[in-house]
Every structure is written in structure tokens, then in C-alpha cells.
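Researcher: Next entry in the queue.
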Amino acid sequence: MISSIVITGYTNEIIQKRFRLIKTTSQDAFHPDEEMISLIPVLYWTRDAKNPLISIRKGSYIVIRGHLEFDKEMGLYILAETIQSSK
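Model: Structure for this entry, 87 residues:
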């Protein structure tokens, strides 16, 4: 799949031991006073023993660059290529 994505948000729950949900918010174009919340599954594939996406504490601000992938069980998710987090 050809795509390039950058998302910013906050780390949330770990699912299936390898995916991390990232919580993002945006304004609803039709209801500007309402905030829309999305939970986006992200996978960071690494050969390292310590996966930075999983080891970052819940609620940390994070910037992810990656691309879209598809999994039969998960559906669409972001495969992270780079991760930057606040400490």
C-alpha cells in the first residue's frame, strides 16, 4: 500500500501485545464546538528487544511517521517508521 502519514497524539492501550492505540483529537467541521476523538492502532516493527512504542508510558505525547498497512484481524493500521515522544 502506498501512503505516507504523520500523526500526533497520546499513547493509549496496548492491544495484541504488539499494537499501541494512539489517541488523537480533531474538531468536527459541522459542529466546531465538539471534539472528535479517534483511537488509531499503530505497529512499530523492530528487531530490538525493547520496542519503544510499547515501552513508552500511557498518556505520553507522541509524533509518528509511517504508512498504512492492512491486517485481517486488525483492519487498517499505521506501520510506524519513526517515533518521537516527550519524556
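Model: The CA atoms of residues 28 and 34 lie 6 Å apart.
Researcher: Noted, moving on.
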